[in-house]
């Protein structure tokens, strides 16, 4: 946890900090983009000028300025700033911040902004623990998330916050940020006389794709080790390409890692073999563990293909075993084989929907007793208890099926599984319809 009172001077990082941190805007005027949210005359701008801001959630892609904007708000309002990561923090950390905030309000009459990065990763218990302190104003929450908060944040907490979506920065916006870093002698690389060719700039902006942090990280990588002897250094497109490849390989634990995995699975679900191969190649080229990819294929085989093509799960499971035994680079062929099968297979999510409905029933509704005719009748005295009496053995009937009740009495009319009209499952649906 970090905790500080932020002023414009406090926004300056040490010389040892990464370039992206050193170049964070020190005032709202230095902030690139988001004028529709924070520009002069907007409601949020007026709130900041008045010294008061409500609890906020900033939703946007990596590198769009969510953390920077939160720190600027704290600086502009001269507010105590405490920072937690939803990945690393728990209920105890929230309570520690709240306790410090209460003391600060009593002793110095100072409000605390609690900034929570990746707030969408807080579970229900953590969000519930935070709720009363946001509601009674002990802390002002500013959450940052790369996922839609309408889906990932609980309604009770969401209703007490204003949500702002930060769009990714434009190419020209990222260009201006990089140019400032190249020219700034105090915080940036101005003392190193670094220049980019126009082709290098275009490659950089394409790879960064609106993420200013990524762009600055690449520039820092390609200029590492330069001296301040006045010699000009020109960054080429080839330099940017090499650095970009390194960036991809070291992003396995970041948001982009999960974004690529999400795109891969959604391409399979959407039956697009071309996109499936593209995202598979990108993940593997980035250094992704092939076993992680194989595990995702096993899940997709049941969640998205299911009973429409039961071979999918067998193939995905075999691919996981094969990848574990073979390893890269040959594993990429095995993964492509399995991924393409799943992408081109008939789709059904009936197994996923069915087990979710069943779980909901078990968790929330009245418990059902096992019907007497289904109970174990193999032990002595079971018959006297009525166990097994009236059970009909399906194999003794035509087509090895006979109508009888298998669900508990309280749930006997529940429907959890509904076969689709896809692939093999269509035959299942037809058979069920005939039985009535």
Q: Strand content of the residues, in percent?
A: 5-15%
- Per DSSP, the total helix count is 19
Structural class call reads alpha/beta
Largest sheet: 6 strands, mixed
Silhouette: globular
CATH architecture of the largest domain: 3-Layer(aba) Sandwich
The fold-level CATH name of the largest domain is Rossmann fold
Low-pLDDT stretches are none
The CATH class label of the largest domain is: Alpha Beta
Helical content, roughly? Answer: 40-55%
Q: What is the CATH homologous superfamily assignment of the largest domain? A: P-loop containing nucleotide triphosphate hydrolases
Strand tally: 8
Mean pLDDT: 83
Order of helices and strands: EHHHEHEHEHEHHEHEHHEHHHHHHHH
Record the strand order, biggest sheet: 1-3-4-5-2-6
The N- and C-terminal alpha carbons lie at a distance of 61 Å
Output the radius of gyration: 29 Å
Any idea how many domains? 4
Summarize the structure.
The protein is α/β, with parallel strands linked by helices and 436 residues long. Helices cover 49% and strands 8% of the residues. The termini are far apart.
Write the layout of secondary structure elements.
Elements: E1 2-5, H1 19-22, H2 35-38, H3 43-50, E2 56-59, H4 66-76, E3 80-85, H5 91-108, E4 112-117, H6 124-135, E5 139-145, H7 149-152, H8 155-158, E6 162-165, H9 171-183, E7 194-196, H10 198-208, H11 212-222, E8 233-235, H12 237-249, H13 255-269, H14 273-285, H15 290-305, H16 311-326, H17 331-344, H18 350-364, H19 423-435
Parallel strand pairs: 2-5, 2-6, 3-4, 4-5, 7-8
Antiparallel strand pairs: 1-3
């Amino acid at each position: 946890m970090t905790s500080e009172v932020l002023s414009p001077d406090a926004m300056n990082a040490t010389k040892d900090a990464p370039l992206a941190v050193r170049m964070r805007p020190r005032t709202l005027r230095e902030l690139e983009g988001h004028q529709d949210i924070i520009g002069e005359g907007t409601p949020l701008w007026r709130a900041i000028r008045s010294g008061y801001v409500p609890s906020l959630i900033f939703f946007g892609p990596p590198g769009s300025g969510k953390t920077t904007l939160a720190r600027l708000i704290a600086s502009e309002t001269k507010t105590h700033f405490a920072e937690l990561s939803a990945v690393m923090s728990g209920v105890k950390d929230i309570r520690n911040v709240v306790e410090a905030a209460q003391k600060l309000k009593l002793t110095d009459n100072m409000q605390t902004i609690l900034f929570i990065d990746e707030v969408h990763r807080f579970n229900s218990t953590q969000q519930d623990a935070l709720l009363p302190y946001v509601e009674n104003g002990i802390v002002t929450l500013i959450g940052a998330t790369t996922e839609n908060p309408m889906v990932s944040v609980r309604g009770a907490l969401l209703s007490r916050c204003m949500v702002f979506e930060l769009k990714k920065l434009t190419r020209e916006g990222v260009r201006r940020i990089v140019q400032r870093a190249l020219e700034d002698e105090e915080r940036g690389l101005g003392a190193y006389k670094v220049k980019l060719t126009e082709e290098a700039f275009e490659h950089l902006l394409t790879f960064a794709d609106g993420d200013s942090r990524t762009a600055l990280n690449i520039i820092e990588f390609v200029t590492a080790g330069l001296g301040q002897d006045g010699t000009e250094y020109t960054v080429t497109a080839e330099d940017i390409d090499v650095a970009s490849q390194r960036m991809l390989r070291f992003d396995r634990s970041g948001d982009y890692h999960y974004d690529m995995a999400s795109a891969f699975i959604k391409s399979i679900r959407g039956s697009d073999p071309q996109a499936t191969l593209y995202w598979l190649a990108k993940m593997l080229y980035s250094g992704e563990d092939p076993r992680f990819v194989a595990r995702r294929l096993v899940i997709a085989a049941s969640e998205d293909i299911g009973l429409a093509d039961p071979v999918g799960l067998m193939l995905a499971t075999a691919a996981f075993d094969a990848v574990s035994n073979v390893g890269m680079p040959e594993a990429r062929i095995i993964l492509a084989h399995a991924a393409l099968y799943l992408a081109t297979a008939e789709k059904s999510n009936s197994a996923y929907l069915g087990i979710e409905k069943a779980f909901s029933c078990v968790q929330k509704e009245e418990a059902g007793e096992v019907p007497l005719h289904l109970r174990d009748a193999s032990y002595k005295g079971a018959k006297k208890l009525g166990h097994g009496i009236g059970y009909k053995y399906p194999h003794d009937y035509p087509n090895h099926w006979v109508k009888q009740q298998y669900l508990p009495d309280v749930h006997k009319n529940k429907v959890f599984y509904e076969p689709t009209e896809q692939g093999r499952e269509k035959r299942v649906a037809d058979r069920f319809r005939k039985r009535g």
